[in-house]
Amino acid sequence: MSAGAAQLLPLNIARHRGRDEQNNDVGAVADRFCQRYVKESASENERKKEATALVNEYFDIVTDFYEYGWGQSFHFATSYLGESFYESLARHEYFLVYQGQFKPTDKVLDVGCGIGGPARNVVRFSSCSVTGVNNNEYQIKRARRHDTYYGFCDKINYVKSDFCNLCFGDNEFDGAYAIEATCHSADKNECYSEVFRVIKPGACFVLYEWCLTSKYDPANEEHRRVRHGIEFGNGLPSLDSTQAVLDAMAAAGFIVEDSFDITERFTKNEPKSLQWYAPLQGRLFSLFNFKSTPMGRWVTSKLCQIMEFLRFAPNGTRKTAEILEEASVNLVKGGELGIFTPSFFVKARKPST
Questions:
Q1: Average pLDDT, integer, range 269-298
Q2: Is the dihedral of CA 285, 289, 290, 293 positive or negative?
Q3: Are 59 and 74 a contacting pair, CB within 8 Å?
Q4: For residue 93, how many C-alpha atoms fall within 13 Å in the half-sphere facing its CB?
Q5: DSSP label at residue 162
Q6: Tens of pLDDT along 127-152?
Q7: In what residue span(s) does the SAM-dependent methyltransferase Erg6/SMT-type domain sit (predicted)?
Q8: CA–CA dist 79, 276 (Å, integer)
Q9: What are the structural domains, with CATH classification, of the chain?
C-alpha cells in the first residue's frame, strides 16, 4: 500500500516489528506501559521522570493504530455541520498558521510533529519551511515516507529531539507551533523555555494544549477516574490545568497575547457545529472515519484478536487496541462533563528586546 493511500483495512497494525526496532516486543511493551498506570494513584512523579521512555513506548505501539483509525493528523477538531472530518482537521491547522502569521520565507518549528500530517498542511497553506521535532524514531520514519510520496522533502525536515532539550541554537526559528503534543512533555516549564530559546525575538509560538478545565474538581471521584483514563489511554505523564499552562508560558518568558478554549468558543458561534469528540461517538460518519466510531473500534478489536490468534499480528496487538478504547471512552466522557479540552489555544510572543 502506498504511503498516501487511505487505510481501509487494518494492515499496518498487524505489522511485525524488526529486530532492530526499539520496543519491538509489542506484548512486553504493552504490559510495561500498563504497569505505569496500574492504579489511579500510581506514581505520577515516576511517570514524569520516565516521560521519554513512557511516551516512546506508547507511540511505538499505537502509531499504526492512530494512522489507520484517524489519518495522518493526530489531533482533534470541532466541526461545522456539513464539514467533513478531514476538512475540520485542516481548518484547525490553518487557524494556527493564520494566528502565527507564518510567511513563505519563514523557518518554522513544529513541536511534536507526529507523522507530519499537520506540517504538510502548514506548508500547503503558508509555503513556509517546517522543521518537525519528534522523539519517536518510528514516527519520523513514517513522516519521511509520506513526505516522499506527496513531494514535501524540500520543505520539511525532521529532527529526533526531546522537547525539554531541543538540539537547536538560540534564536534559530521565525516561529513555532504545537498541536496537542506538548502534553506529552515531562515538564511544561522546561518545554516552553526551550521553544522560547530557539525562536527569534518577536516571533510567535502558537499551540493547542490538552488541559483540564475550570470545571474539573479533584475531589470528584468520577472526574479523577476520567482524568486517569485519559492519561492512561493517551500516554500522558499528567494533565495540567489551563492556568498551569499560562503560568508555564509566563515563566518561560513569553508574553501571552491571546488564550481561550477553542471548543467552548466554537459551540457559542451561530453556525451549527459538532463537538471535537463527535467522531468518537460515531456522529461524524463517513466510510473513512467509521474506524474511529464505537462500532468501528469494536470491529478493529475483534480483528486484532483474530489476527493475533492466527499469528498474523504480534502478541500485544489486541491489548494495544484496548488501551486506545480506554482513551476513547474517557475522552468522550471528559468532553461531555466539560472537564477536559484538547484545544486550549495560546498565542504567545517572545519579546523583541
A1: 72
A2: negative
A3: no
A4: 23
A5: B
A6: 999 999 999 999 999 999 999 999 99
A7: 58-351
A8: 7
A9: 12-73+273-336 (no CATH), 86-224+238-269+340-349 (3.40.50.150)
Distance separating alpha carbons of residues 130 and 119, to the nearest angstrom: 7
> What angle, rounded to 10 degrees, do the helices at 317-337 and 221-233 form?
140
**The residue type at 321:** A
Q: Which of 145, 144, 146, 116 is nearest to 132 (CA)?
A: 116
Report the chain's terminal Cα–Cα distance, integer Å.
51
Per-residue pLDDT tens over the stretch 40-84: 545 677 777 777 788 888 888 889 888 988 899 999 999 988 898
The C-alpha cell that represents 105 in the structure block: 520565507
Written as nine digits, the cell of 319 is 491489548
Q: Worst-scoring range by mean pLDDT, 192-196, 220-224, 263-267? A: 263-267
Q: Where are the beta strands (DSSP E) in the chain?
A: 79-80, 107-111, 129-134, 156-160, 173-179, 199-212, 240-241, 255-261, 273-274, 340-349
Q: Hey, what amino acid is at 242?
A: T
- Please provide the size of the chain in residues: 353
